[in-house]
Amino acid sequence: MPNSPKRLSRFWQELKRRRVIHIIVVYATAAFIIIELVNNVYEPLRLPDWTPLLVIVILAIGFPIAIIISWIFDISLKGVKKAEPIQQNGVQSESTVLSEKPPVQEKSIIVLPFENISPDPDQEYFSDGLTEEIITDLSHIHDILVISRSSAMTFKGTKKKIREIAVEVNVRYILEGSVRKAGNNIRITAQLIDALTDAHLWAEKYKGTLDDVFDIQEKVSRSIVNTLKIKLSSKEKKKIAERSIDDVKAQECYLKANHELMKFTQDSLDLARQYLLKGLDLVGDNALLYSALGKTYYFYHDCGFKIDDDPLQKAEELAQKAYALNPNLASIHFLFGMLQRGTGNLKSAVENIKRAIEIDPDDTNILLLYVWAITAYIGKSSKMKPFIIKLIEIDPYTPINYIAKGLLFWMEGDMENAINISEKALEIDPGSRWAYFWMANFLARSESYDSFQNVIDLALKNDSSDLVAKFLIFCNYAVCRDKEKALNALTTDVRTFAWNDPEGPWLLAGLFSIIDEKEQSLDWLERAVDRGWINYPLFSERDPFLENIRNEIRFKELMEKVKHEWENFEV
Known about the structure:
Elements: H1 6-17, H2 20-41, H3 51-72, E1 73-76, E2 79-82, H4 94-98, E3 108-111, E4 115-116, H5 124-139, E5 145-146, H6 149-152, H7 162-169, E6 173-182, E7 185-194, E8 199-209, H8 213-227, H9 234-241, H10 248-261, H11 266-283, H12 287-303, H13 311-325, H14 330-343, H15 346-359, H16 364-378, H17 385-394, H18 399-411, H19 415-428, H20 433-445, H21 449-462, H22 467-479, H23 483-489, H24 492-500, H25 504-514, H26 518-530, H27 536-542, H28 553-567
Parallel strand pairs: 3-5, 3-6, 4-6
Antiparallel strand pairs: 1-2, 6-7, 7-8
Helix pairs in contact: 2-3, 5-8, 5-10, 10-11, 11-12, 12-13, 12-14, 13-14, 14-15, 14-16, 15-16, 16-17, 16-18, 17-18, 18-19, 18-20, 19-20, 20-21, 20-22, 21-22, 22-23, 25-26
């Protein structure tokens, strides 16, 4: 999709923010009425022949004056006050959203993926695992801003220069290294670089066996802390030293499983499950392994893969086992949050996600789920601004984070910024199905139909058979108000998926509404509410697709319940 002309976009947004467009429309309407009125009454009232011309001249002179006044002053029912300049900080600033970065934090770092130089290329899981473990250690330290694993991994095998990478992710320091694993022997090199001066602040080589890997990992983290002159609290020291899996072989199984989980295919999930079961055979009951296995089963459900067990029931059982062993593990509360979100128990989901953030405030998956739940389902988006800023600051190369930020804008009625920030998601990953999915929804609700059609065409270009594509085909016909084709396009598998999906009932309620299927629309909206949606501002006002059902008795009765829940929900 072509990039928006940034300056024109910013100017247009400022015109809308200062209500200039509103004043132009009101002035033009009033002027037309006045001219028509004068033309009809000046003869009966025996006014001079030049009266209509005088009125037109006065209105023409007043037009630029009205525009200037509306630019300078904010005129509303609450009175007249000087318009504030566009914010330069915070989530609603266009410049912040699209281009501007905060100043580089003095103690900020990206851990680049350690290069696997082992004789066996299949040992890559080990180098990736070491990278992730060091990132995790450093993330426990309050005084360091650490770029997330998912964004760091985008630089795997990169030929970019150190300074270029640092500028892209807005950090000062870079850790890079290599891993050589042959049998039970390992050799690890690491060096810390100041990207501002290109100075090598610290470098070290470590040799040992697999049994030494935990000590080496801790030494690397502590060397960075010492070099940057950071004083650790007792809690931070404990976090760096603690190990959720003490057995090296079981840890290796966990690393292999994590490596496979990131691929999101049926085969990779099957392999991840085998590794985790093997790890449990080695060490017995273990909270982290149970939690990871539960997440694997949840992904089976989320991706729609078929297995013998009920994946959600199995994930719930494993989460309970993990919790009984260690109730203070963030990944367990995150798993509970995902499961409860999926079954409609949103209040409990939010409580578990909040607990996970308390334990691990820099876990980007937890932050994303929290922002999404509070913004979309609960409707308290203003509370999420600090979280979305932090999320993108530490994880700037994950497309779904920008979709979450776009959703925040959307929920606050700022369609233009929702669209603009979603373009960033497509810039990062032009093949992202969910970026196309949400971009289409943003564009449709902003009545940008040409761009909407362009996004639909791009999304369906390479694959028109998966559930996302089928949903977009239905969406396309509905937005075009082709009721017959829309209903024919809504296949049973899409209905089933949407009925059980957290966002699906709300989205289908809007699409049924615009094709005048009011009863079906209300059925789907009631389903959303039954599953925990209490986003009263969205339902009652901000979603234009629901306008067609807002006068229905069922809608009004439903909104009484939703409003009460929304007003009494504390974030």
